[in-house]
Design goal:
With 129 residues, this protein is an alpha+beta fold. It is 26% helix and 26% strand. It has a five-stranded antiparallel β-sheet, with helices on one face. A hairpin with an 8-residue loop joins strand 2 and strand 3.
């Protein structure tokens, strides 16, 4: 599909991560699928009277990576351009569990940096439905 491009934010419709937002990574096989990196646990709300330690704890993001069929993705108008995301989320990162964990750690770092900088606020907010 032409509109399922790398860097596009999509909502996952089926399965364990239904209702979660994810960024489309790469497409490497012949059939219609995408390798996505998404947010499994969103950061919590922060108020101005919270201390630094509490803010740091509530700003954590838990990511996931998965190969998902296009039929189970709903693309949004938003994009999340992370250059290093393409190099981290590849088909090679699914070969061994240790590689998968390394990829998740790298994505967690990228997502938390992006969240703390205040960019892409919509991506890090929970879907209300």
């Amino acid at each position: 599909m032409k509109f399922m491009k790398s860097g596009k934010v999509a909502v996952i419709l089926n399965g364990r991560y239904a209702g979660k937002k994810a960024v489309i990574g790469t497409k490497e096989r012949g059939y219609g699928h995408a390798i996505v990196a998404g947010v499994e646990r969103y950061p919590l709300k922060i108020t101005k009277n919270m201390g630094k330690k509490r803010v740091a704890k509530r700003s954590k993001v838990k990511p996931f990576i998965k190969v998902i069929n296009y039929n189970h993705l709903m693309p949004t108008r938003y994009g999340l351009e992370l250059e290093t995301l393409k190099s981290v989320v590849t088909l090679d990162s699914f070969k061994e569990p240790s590689q998968r964990e390394e990829a998740k750690k790298a994505i967690k770092k990228l997502f938390e940096e992006r969240y703390n900088s205040g960019k892409n606020k919509w991506f890090f907010s929970k879907l209300r439905f």
